[in-house]
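Table S5 (text form). Sequence records supplied for joint modeling of the two-component complex.
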Amino acid sequence: MKNNAVISPTSEVTPPLVKMEDIHKSFGGVTALDGVDFEVGNNETVGLIGDNGAGKSTLIKILTGVARQDEGKIFWKGKELLKHNVEKSRNIGIETVYQDRALAEKQSIWKNLFLGREKVYGRTGFLKIAESKKDTIEMLKKMIGFTQKGLTADLSVSGLSGGEKQGIAIARALYFDAELIILDEPTNNLSLSETNKVINFCKGIKEHGKSSIFITHSIYHVYAVADKFIILDRGRVIGTIWKKDIMMDKLIENLEYVAKHGKLIGSYANV
Amino acid sequence: MLDKIKLKITESKLQISIFCVLLLVFLAFTIANPRTFLSYNIYYAFMSIIPFAAILSIALTPIIILGDIDLSFPSVMGFCAWVFSAVFNQSGNIYLALVCSLATGLFIGFINSIFIVRIGIPSLIVTIGMQYLWRGLVMIACGGIGLSLVDTQGSVLYKVFVGRIGDVVPAQAVWAIVIAIIFAVILNWHRFGTHLLSVGDNVVSSRMMGVNVEKVRTIAFMQMGFFAAFAGILATLEVLYFWPSTGEGYLMKSLAAVFIGGTSVFGGTGTIFGTFIGSIIMGSLEAGIVSSGISGFWTKFIFGVVIVLSLTIYALMGKKISFRKKLFGFIKK
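The corresponding structure-token record, covering 604 residues in total, follows.
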């Protein structure tokens, strides 16, 4: 495990939910990922931290099957994923929540929730509209605690706030029994109260016994929810730090050090 | 409950206003020339002419909803009408002619989709080229000479397609309504309709959610080819003669009908009801203007006014809806 200093050894008997080994990926001549090892345990929230261009989104694209790695292996619950693609990744339970791109804004809430997996009558393809709408409201209220007055499933998504849109995308993932929910910069461009909403939705993921990856460059937001932080820099994992081992100010100090020197502060790097 | 009704009205506001535009247009015509517009004859004439353009507009709506465009359908219509007429004249079998023509339409739609969906050339550019290509092929194929279809007149197919039901209702009007209903049902109650809207709205998100974007777009262009062929067959049967220029003149009117109907050029929204009303407005304007005693020279000007005015109203209304949403705060803690 070169370049990967794990501080707390994982003492799981069951295999981790996701394990990525020695992932390489380059676009043209540019190396985006240079031997990344990455692991998410069961019911674990991982904060994936890194600057722009660190390779966060490339790593996630490979995990979700949008892109294919040049080298390296991906394991899901201990089984290797071969010929990985978007469909397979969704079928095994990986869901991604993208901030801006997640929802079709002019469409109603219920259509968004069931997009691509509509409830239909058998093979005819005709929609079970009433049932879908009923489920939508139940899901939003129970699963992620929407409290809005006058909430109807027919409302178009464009009328919702940024945090609420995230909530809908998260609810969608939970409803379809995702085991691993990937949140790509979920708090970008959100106001404070909206950010709090999103962080609460994220806590809901853990309460439901699911794992998640929280991608961000804002430590403040991820510190509240993550169990461990994986720090990516210029295509390499330069450290995995457990939350119980580090305070927020130390973590920030470390990240600043990483930006300058490309490695963690001595005491964290050598264990 | 009251909230729900209010929301429904807000949602359907566009359709309601399109319908109001239609009523206004006909009211104006009736005031200008009550004798013509209170008799059945003018409506009979509308029902025999408008369906061709209406069918084209309806088939065009899914493509506009996707945020794409098809400018080649008038030429496809002409080419398929030629296939129909030529096969009929050669074989004497009208059913064979029908199948060949519709299959050609589907196939041309598929060719369009290859360039647009697989190769990735913008639909505007591909279909400008295709418009010339297929019109050119019609000219080459028929040598600029029309074909008579008088022999089809006694056939069952003729009666089913363009016959007069009880001597009062042209069959093509019924076809247009049936096709509109089928499209509306698919758009609102079928998975494919949802996929059309979401792909037009946000193609990245749709792809991520597992919608087969390529398939959706391919089907949209193929059905356009199919219904262009169908409209071509109806139009040639109606006049019992194939003109090499069949289809010309439908392009702008059919497009305008879709936009008057409230379908957004940006994709993601649109209704078949709106398109249907839009094509009635577009189809009746010319006859209405002439019979109102205004000089025929005014028709294009008035077309322009109606199109620009209705689109402006929709644009303003769209803003107002979101403004009211903010004002009343449907979603507020």
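Note: The mean pLDDT of chain B is 89.
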